[in-house]
Amino acid sequence: MRSICVYCGSGSGHDGVHEKAARDLGAAMAKAGIRLVYGGGGIGLMGTLAKSVVDNGGKVLGIIPDFLKRKEMPLDAVIDVVTVPDMHTRKMRMFTEADAFVALPGGIGTLEELVEQLTWAQLGRHAKPVVVANVGGFWDPLRVLLDHMKDEGFIRPGLQVKYSIVDEVRDIIPTIQAQVAKLPQEALAKEHDPVVIEKM
């Protein structure tokens, strides 16, 4: 496993536990020699996470649409920043660059990116690990909603939503490493092109 894509907020939230989680994850990724792939912003949890990776000697790839540069202000410390024309290109590039996905707390954009990866996995478009970092119980309402969808028959047998949920940042990388170790090499290949799903 060489790279993890982390989805997280361009804001920091009210609870300092979220910012600490971003710092701790960044440090852990750098220590493990795992590159961060993220949305390219320099503010909020995104900025905290990327700065932590860099400060601890790690590598970062930021991918940001041109129209968001003024709003999310990429970090000068992140040398490897790719500017793309739109959100669809950004998400596709993040997918192809990553071996796994992590969702820290965030807003509607973070939720949308997480659910998209869950959908692609559900439909068999990839087998890359998806980990939900339930820091301070942030994602509990989503768990309730997914259970409700299942109970109501909208998530049917054979179409289970495949993800791991962890409560502690220290468990994120070991959880992903354990899942990657069980996957055949081809499961992480890039040929599973989720653009097919976007066009449906």
UniProtKB/TrEMBL annotation:
It catalyses: AMP + H2O = D-ribose 5-phosphate + adenine. InterPro entries: LOG (IPR005269), LOG_fam (IPR031100). Its EC number is 3.2.2.n1. One of its GO terms (molecular function) is AMP nucleosidase activity. GO terms for biological process: cytokinin biosynthetic process. One of its GO terms (cellular component) is cytosol. Keywords: Cytokinin biosynthesis, Hydrolase. It comes from the Bacteria. Belongs to the LOG family. This is Cytokinin riboside 5'-monophosphate phosphoribohydrolase. It comes from Phreatobacter cathodiphilus. The lineage of its organism: Bacteria, Pseudomonadati, Pseudomonadota, Alphaproteobacteria, Hyphomicrobiales.
